[in-house]
Amino acid sequence: MRLVIPLAITFTAGMIMILNFFIPHQPFAFLGEHLQEWYMIVASGAIFLGTANLLHVHVRKMKLRLRNWQYSPVTIIGLVVMLILGLIYGVEEGKPFDYLFMNMVAPMGATMFSLLAFFVASAAFRAFRASNWRATLLLSSAFLVMLGQVPIGAMIWNKIPLAKVWLMAIPNTAGQRAVMIGAAMGVVATSLRMIFGIERSYLGGAD
Predict the structure, then answer these.
(1) Which of 76-90, 114-128, 147-161 has the lowest mean pLDDT?
(2) HEC assignment per residue over the chain
(3) In sequence order, what are the residues at sequence separation of 6 or more whose Cβ sits closer than 8 angstroms to the Cβ of residue 147?
(4) pLDDT digits over 35-77, tens only?
(5) Residue 160: how many CB atoms within 10 A of its CB?
(6) Is 144 exposed, middle or buried (0-12, 13-18, 19+ CB in 10 A)?
(7) Half-sphere CA count of 164, side-chain side, radius 13 A
(8) CA 125 from centre of chain
(9) CA angle centred on 119, ends 115 and 101, rounded to 5°
């Protein structure tokens, strides 16, 4: 029963949402609307579960003195302080919560994202080695785009900025749309596998 009930709920909810999309009439419209409300309720409950799990993991880490346990008190203190400030003063602009977020959380996030530039540069260096015709094409396109992005490109030849615009508007857009279509098809396939009970990894240890 631990396996049958979750599969039945998943199948029923999934089929209702699919039918609501293709048949936007009663009773599917009513059921689909209420299922979306239940989704928001479940998602809100998942936030509390995630908070409890975060506290459990880091408290255990401190007790057992696991690797990098020194960062756990900082994480817990940050969570508690932001939670208390948000509940007491609110999250509006100018409040203590907003001040800490804009002056601590946002700069730290920007720092983490800025580090990605070095990983991107390293990956680009490895990918741009002209070992075959595909890598050579990628190297040439990247060089042309970067050259067209700076003033010296137009000084070398006035057609380079136009070539950069064409590369970004036509081949690049086509590649991005192909990736998006492939990702969408993957989402549809995975969703159908979950609805029909083929994919059961989300059930964990249920049997």
Answers:
(1) 114-128
(2) CCCHHHHHHHHHHHHHHHHHHHCCCCCHHHHHHHHHHHHHHHHHHHHHHHHHHHHHHHHHHHHHCCCCCCHHHHHHHHHHHHHHHHHHHCCCCCCHHHHHHHHHHHHHHHHHHHHHHHHHHHHHHHHCCCCCHHHHHHHHHHHHHHHHHCHHHHHHCCCHHHHHHHHHHCHHHHHHHHHHHHHHHHHHHHHHHHHCCCCCHHHCCCC
(3) 153, 156, 160, 164
(4) 888 888 888 888 888 889 999 999 999 998 888 899 899 989 9
(5) 19
(6) middle
(7) 17
(8) 26
(9) 25
**Exposed/middle/buried for residue 92 (C-beta within 10 Å: 0-12, 13-18, 19+):** exposed
More reliable by pLDDT, 166 or 150: 166
Residues across the chain:
207
Residue 6 has pLDDT above 80, yes or no: no
52: which 2 tokens?
């409890």
Rounded mean pLDDT of 10-20? 81
In this structure, of 34-43, 111-120, 162-171, 198-207, the range with the lowest mean pLDDT score is: 198-207
Looking at the chain, the whole-number percentage of residues with pLDDT higher than 70 is 92
